[in-house]
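Hi, here's the filled form for the chain we discussed.

Project: internal
Contact: R.S.
Residues: 356
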Amino acid sequence: MTPQKNNSTVNVCLSTNDEWAPFAAVTIASIMSNTKSKVHFFVLHTNLNKTTVDRINLLLEKFENAKIEYISVEGKGISDLGVGIGYITSDTFSKILFPNINADINRVIYTDVDVVFREDISELFNEDLGGHVIGAVEGISHSDGKDNIRLNIDENHKYFQAGLLLIDCKKWREEKITSTCFGVLQSGQKLRYGDQDLLNIVFADSYKYQKLHQKYCVIPFQLSEMRTFSKDSREALENPFIIHYAGGNKPWIAGGPFENDFWRYASMTDFFPDIIKMRLDNSFVSKERDVITRQYKLFGIIPFVKIKRKFMYSQITERYFLFNFIPVLMKVDNMTSVRWTSLGLPILRLTKEKER
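And the returned structure, exactly as it came back:
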């Protein structure tokens, strides 16, 4: 879909830290690749390294209609609550601060950073909220009502995904939603899904929310469920607007559906080599479907050599283990070269000649 020109500015909020900054850059690149409108990014963070900021800002050379503003939320009270759970860091809770920090902003899209956009973001920005404070996508994996029981909220509430929100900031401020959120956080209630549980508690009874189309949150591990969940979810499978790589099977960890969408936008960022390295490193500690293992035995019984072949983005990696566990050789074959290393030391590198 070719993005249409639009003179209005789309406000987008992301929250990140140094660890997640490469993926924030990928999300920004995906948005700008599909949008002609001016986009003002507000990056909430806790002490991003200057070098990291400079690397994200290189995207501004590619997209003149983008503006990136960095807002430190250090000392704003979130990190003091100890609300991080596993890979859900306390930084993701900072979204509840944004409407109060930016009193002149009346509408914003909040997005997680393990997300890519495939269409013009101005379409989402202009969705009708029907008088509600937020718009969100119903959570397919949470539709059985068990989370409502766990959180002791209205049984009729449709539990929503918090990785993508359209927020009426003016109404948020008027309803004092941030204060309500802090009240829940300070109550000590257990939040299995972090900020997502928090926002569902807050919006379940008093405020409600505007349901957005399932195309705004297509999660790869839910594809089979989406085929039967609803008419919206089936339509979303045909043309996903947003891919949210929720859960553990993220493209820089493992392969999976819509992986190419992620790598297309990752290649536009200065972090591309770092992300490729993450994928390579993770390939040797995971048990993924695209790993082929061969074993060779002496006399058919004594383990001698094990070879693990890993297929990934434009690359095949082979690792050789003596007696099944001693790493002795690694071969990396990509589009430009083949190289061999042993115990981390380079042995041989061959450069491939480009086809004419």
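Let me know if anything looks off before we file it.
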